Amino acid sequence: MDRQRLDKWLWHARVVKARSSSAALVEAGHVRVNGVREKAPGHAVKIGDVVTVGLDNSVRVLKVVAFAERRGDATAARVLYEDLRDRQ
Predict the structure, then answer these.
(1) Which of 13, 15, 37, 67 is the most exposed place for a label (fewest CB within 10 A)?
(2) CA atoms within 13 A of residue 50's CA, in its CB half-sphere
(3) Strands 81-83 and 50-54: what pairing?
(4) Distances, alpha carbon 40 to alpha carbons 8, 25, 78, in Å
Protein backbone atom coordinates (compact mmCIF):
# COMPACT_ATOMS: atom_id res chain seq x y z
CA MET A 1 0.00 0.00 0.00
CA ASP A 2 1.53 3.31 -1.05
CA ARG A 3 -1.43 5.62 -0.29
CA GLN A 4 -4.30 5.78 2.19
CA ARG A 5 -7.36 7.95 2.71
CA LEU A 6 -6.63 10.91 4.99
CA ASP A 7 -9.55 10.23 7.36
CA LYS A 8 -8.60 6.57 7.66
CA TRP A 9 -4.94 7.36 8.35
CA LEU A 10 -5.86 9.89 11.06
CA TRP A 11 -8.07 7.27 12.69
CA HIS A 12 -5.44 4.52 12.47
CA ALA A 13 -2.81 6.90 13.90
CA ARG A 14 -5.19 7.54 16.83
CA VAL A 15 -5.34 11.29 16.30
CA VAL A 16 -9.11 10.98 16.85
CA LYS A 17 -11.30 8.37 18.52
CA ALA A 18 -13.68 7.62 15.64
CA ARG A 19 -13.35 7.58 11.85
CA SER A 20 -16.43 9.77 11.52
CA SER A 21 -14.70 12.30 13.78
CA SER A 22 -11.64 12.32 11.54
CA ALA A 23 -13.82 12.92 8.47
CA ALA A 24 -15.59 15.79 10.26
CA LEU A 25 -12.24 17.28 11.31
CA VAL A 26 -11.04 17.26 7.70
CA GLU A 27 -14.32 18.66 6.32
CA ALA A 28 -14.21 21.49 8.89
CA GLY A 29 -10.84 22.57 7.48
CA HIS A 30 -8.72 21.72 10.53
CA VAL A 31 -6.26 19.54 8.60
CA ARG A 32 -3.45 20.52 6.25
CA VAL A 33 -1.41 18.20 4.05
CA ASN A 34 1.99 19.59 3.11
CA GLY A 35 0.81 23.06 4.13
CA VAL A 36 -2.36 23.03 2.01
CA ARG A 37 -5.76 22.98 3.73
CA GLU A 38 -7.60 19.78 2.84
CA LYS A 39 -11.40 19.49 2.99
CA ALA A 40 -11.85 16.07 1.36
CA PRO A 41 -11.68 13.13 3.80
CA GLY A 42 -10.91 10.82 0.87
CA HIS A 43 -7.74 12.72 -0.08
CA ALA A 44 -4.89 10.22 -0.44
CA VAL A 45 -1.81 10.72 1.74
CA LYS A 46 1.49 9.07 0.93
CA ILE A 47 4.63 8.32 2.90
CA GLY A 48 6.59 11.52 3.49
CA ASP A 49 3.55 13.82 3.60
CA VAL A 50 3.37 16.24 6.54
CA VAL A 51 -0.09 16.37 8.12
CA THR A 52 -0.91 19.32 10.38
CA VAL A 53 -3.98 18.84 12.58
CA GLY A 54 -5.62 21.59 14.63
CA LEU A 55 -7.24 20.00 17.67
CA ASP A 56 -9.06 21.66 20.61
CA ASN A 57 -6.11 23.30 22.36
CA SER A 58 -3.15 22.09 20.34
CA VAL A 59 -1.68 21.62 16.91
CA ARG A 60 -0.06 18.33 15.92
CA VAL A 61 2.47 18.16 13.09
CA LEU A 62 2.94 14.58 11.91
CA LYS A 63 5.03 13.11 9.11
CA VAL A 64 3.47 10.00 7.53
CA VAL A 65 5.97 7.12 7.75
CA ALA A 66 3.71 4.04 7.41
CA PHE A 67 0.18 2.77 6.87
CA ALA A 68 -1.89 0.15 8.67
CA GLU A 69 -4.56 -2.23 7.42
CA ARG A 70 -6.38 -2.18 10.78
CA ARG A 71 -6.56 0.16 13.74
CA GLY A 72 -4.30 -1.11 16.50
CA ASP A 73 -3.35 -0.04 20.00
CA ALA A 74 -1.41 3.13 20.82
CA THR A 75 1.95 1.41 20.36
CA ALA A 76 1.00 0.25 16.87
CA ALA A 77 -0.33 3.72 16.02
CA ARG A 78 2.91 5.42 17.10
CA VAL A 79 4.90 3.73 14.30
CA LEU A 80 2.65 5.28 11.63
CA TYR A 81 4.05 8.78 12.09
CA GLU A 82 6.96 10.88 13.23
CA ASP A 83 5.93 13.76 15.50
CA LEU A 84 7.75 16.80 14.13
CA ARG A 85 6.97 18.85 17.26
CA ASP A 86 9.28 16.52 19.27
CA ARG A 87 12.26 17.67 17.20
CA GLN A 88 12.24 21.24 18.55
Answers:
(1) 37
(2) 10
(3) unpaired
(4) 12, 10, 24
